[in-house]
Records
---
Amino acid sequence: DSGVTQTPKHLITATGQRVTLRCSPRSGDLSVYWYQQSLDQGLQFLIQYYNGEERAKGNILERFSAQQFPDLHSELNLSSLELGDSALYFCASSATGTGTNEQYFGPGTRLTVT
Amino acid sequence: DAKTTQPNSMESNEEEPVHLPCNHSTISGTDYIHWYRQLPSQGPEYVIHGLTSNVNNRMASLAIAEDRKSSTLILHRATLRDAAVYYCILRDWGGAQKLVFGQGTRLTINP
């Protein structure tokens, strides 16, 4: 158990809909990262937050957004969903916003868009 | 981000040592070598990391070539639970904290 929790575990929704994925980092960790894992693209970094502020952006679509709240939990919002958004979404956390601290991953949310 | 090259797959037997290679010929002086693994149906998991010297922890050992252009993750006595995809990742200490995953090596352990 990494100490990172993600809800829900599974999500099935229709094209055009909007969903919110939630992540609680390990106790004391200030950075949260979101990654997407699909069969054709592999594991890709989406976005990082550090202590409530956006720190880095990766291959995140404009239809996707994220935020980190004062209690440090984070939410990833996916809107106008397309079939290609079906994937596993992982959240990870690390202690700080710099250096090469190890990241601890949650169990993921499997999103299926039909 | 500096690139790493790993074999797509490897196979070994239970209770035998496993050596997982990684080439990173364009590594820079500030790049740390990190290894993560992803067990089936789970999120990635940190294994080990190093800069220049060989490193050991409870999970594995990391052997780094003198010129740092390659490294080897060593599982001393593989168990069935070690079957996973292993990722070798370079991380610049002063750069972005994101992890850049390649294709990794899918390790199969035979009983």
---
Amino acid sequence: GAVVSQHPSRVICKSGTSVKIECRSLDFQATTMFWYRQFPKKSLMLMATSNEGSKATYEQGVEKDKFLINHASLTLSTLTVTSAHPEDSSFYICSARDRRVGTYEQYFGPGTRLTVT
Amino acid sequence: GENVEQHPSTLSVQEGDSAVIKCTYSDSASNYFPWYKQELGKRPQLIIDIRSNVGEKKDQRIAVTLNKTAKHFSLHITETQPEDSAVYFCAASNAGNMLTFGGGTRLMVKP
């Protein structure tokens, strides 16, 4: 099956610093990637939709200047959490959708656990 | 936008029993309904999905039913096993675009 990788899997950073998370589709091309945030014992909340070669679409309440998304190629999207604060600590998960017509399935990365101290 | 409600939030069953999780959605344009199993600290794993052109789909011990008129869909797990214990999420999407997730169901299968 299709594989999506995410790096790093775990990161601890100090308040005020920035953290970049990478999401890669390893064996397929993804025109669209999605970024989710998941708090403990909660559901996945969509943060933004990332389309290759265009600006990301952010969900209501998500600050685009704080969560910078770059989808530079058909296999890579990055999420940068700028000036991180403890309330940004969460599990961040990306997913990628295969660009082939007629496929609906999204493939999830393993997630990145961010802890801001 | 789409709103997905999921019930129950927790479900405890005896090994060998069946488990049923129900979801409702609000957007009649949604036509793709996947179910995910998530273990603690892991990624969601697709266990079954259904498109709106069918009413039921089965894969071994797992089945999903869809009622488009009522806008609800359900996950059925038969002959539950301890390894089925996890959090299950339903989701809805329009043609594979953004997924809207339900709140999740914590399933506990007691041996």
